[in-house]
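Subject: sequence -> structure tokens, single chain

Hey, anyone have a minute? Need the predicted structure for the following. Not urgent.
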Amino acid sequence: MADKGLLIVLSGPSGAGKGTICKALLNRQKFWLSVSATTREPRKGEIPEQSYHYITKDQFKTKIKNDDFLEYAEVYGNFYGTPKSSAIEKIEKGENVILEIDIQGALKVKENYPEGIFIFILPPSMEELKKRIIGRGSETAESLVTRFKAAYKEVNYVSKYNYAVINDTVEEAVSKIESIIVAERCRVDRMKDKILDSKEGIIHERFYD
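Reply:
Had a minute. Here:
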């Protein structure tokens, strides 16, 4: 039977660069990217079914009733959710699954799937975060103020995560996340079925070969 895959959850304040890091990871590692569902309108450059599954609020609420989400949350007036069955199926088959989701969603996933690897992406500074959000060019003056206030609150959630990675450069951030994944694969609690006999609690003979 194949080893279970890992669930890697990336989140952090808006503008920290988690989306860019996620794309870079997908170019260097074999992950299955879980595409979230959302009720918000697509942003410039986003591709339906690749960036998000864009659905109506009525469709989203139906999926909530059917328990179709690993997590879901309302953010800035819109709903976001992670489809459950496809992610769990991939993990059980031994594939690594990566989620790039907001903080609310990540904490709900942690409640439902605590064995996941939860990584908080931080900007180099709050001033740099502000520049990145403004640089998107997709926010109104009013929404910018809302996002700045939210970002200052969101950074305080870092203590809820297993790891924190500062996004000075995308390459350095990706390298750190890859190192985290290697270390997680070597954890004794993940390797116990390989090392110890499940009934007798003894070292497998193959470790003496």
